């Protein structure tokens, strides 16, 4: 495959030409093409052009192209639920149209990729295999490289890097001249990343450099930064410190426009290691200090940003755990600095400990604010539903009733009134689910009993409860959190467990409440769901309550949860 060295310039010319064409003619197809180009480089511009498209005026071909680009945009901007909705809608459009069978396989792969990002591994593999089956049954041999790439991504994300490399290699051998250049870049990047995991640094650097060449030419700044960081890490592993430093210093320049504090932190950490490898301890310690200053600075500026992203990535950054060891190792070799180096180490250790305390405090503060803000929004929406739409529907029914004598078809008229009654009931049901009235009026225990009554009335599940709660032990906001935890556990049982019974007990022992929850469903493999969205929601609420969550399950033997929540003394 030959990559033209003037790709970036040529692509820029094409973009300028399309923008000029769109300014003059306002063609929807041109707006869609511009949105597709900007999705990888400037999501704000991509969104602007997507919003200019009037779907009512689109031909079938343009409609399909529009939905495909919109799905890609939602994926790139991490709006995964919206992406899946768009892609599944597009599958319905393509259904029964043999001329679009290849595109149908592509969309299935895209959905599989979204579910893989969400760690819904079983669903991800199902969509990927469906795409592969379509290509095999319809003899789309020239497109099988896409299936091997998707399977490689699945294997890589599930910890099977060796099998992932095998599939990436198959994908590389099947690439053809029509293969999208961005696909080639991504394939080389994933191949290099997999080799990095396997500690095969030379192979890793080779494929990552190929990916970086394309990302540089197409001006994909985020991909440039990520790839350069990976190359630098492999070079540091190979003790090629002098080669790694220019890559990382260039990343710092690129980050001036990107502003991602986590990437700053990674770059500073690797620069510190590279200078340490060169025995330049002054620069090594300087970059280590910049690393901490950068993290603290960004946290201070972004208090309102989602704490899930800030803290989750921080916890998975193993390099932070090595900070003290790195500093101590550096000073042992830096004898020339003597007492000065020891003082710097102590400063770093103190900063590190203070930093950990700050992170934990900010995590709980921001997480509590986010969850309670969500509850307030639920209350607002529930009130709007009940007082707005509910009242409006009742008013409509009353006005219609005045015309009953003037209507010839009495049965149809009564049927219409019945549908309005059903709508009113549905509004009340949704409003109640969002904010149970019994929680604020009667307290936590009654709200939980009300929840169980609704479940048993609408399903075949038997609930055996034993609740002992003293009203006033928790403030109202904490009671809401406890209720949501129980509600999420019950919802998970209803959705996934195929259970016939639930047992739940809540009791007070000394200065804490213990909640034990069990069902007799099909259970699950803990290793596959420990990071699932449902469990994260439960765990985050228990964190706010300063509680402890443990659970156990095996496939076929149901699930059991134990939650310890300490009393919150004023």
Automatic annotation (TrEMBL):
Keywords for this protein: ATP-binding, Kinase, Membrane, Nucleotide-binding, Phosphoprotein, TPR repeat, Transferase, Transmembrane, Transmembrane helix, Two-component regulatory system
Matching InterPro entries: HATPase_C_sf (IPR036890), HATPase_dom (IPR003594), His_kinase_dom (IPR005467), Sensor_HK_TwoCompSys (IPR050482), Sig_transdc_His_kin_sub3_dim/P (IPR011712), TPR-like_helical_dom_sf (IPR011990), TPR_rpt (IPR019734)
NADP as UniProt keyword: no
CDD domains per the UniProt record, alphabetical: HATPase_UhpB-NarQ-NarX-like (cd16917)
PROSITE patterns: HIS_KIN, TPR
Keyword set includes Acetylation: no
Residues annotated as transmembrane: 336-355
The TPR repeat ranges on this chain: 105-138, 145-178
Listed GO CC annotations: membrane
A Pfam entry, by short name: HisKA_3
GO molecular function annotation: ATP binding; phosphorelay sensor kinase activity; protein dimerization activity
PANTHER family: NITRATE/NITRITE SENSOR PROTEIN NARX-RELATED, NITRATE_NITRITE SENSOR PROTEIN NARQ
Protein name: histidine kinase
Protein species of origin: Roseivirga ehrenbergii (strain DSM 102268 / JCM 13514 / KCTC 12282 / NCIMB 14502 / KMM 6017)
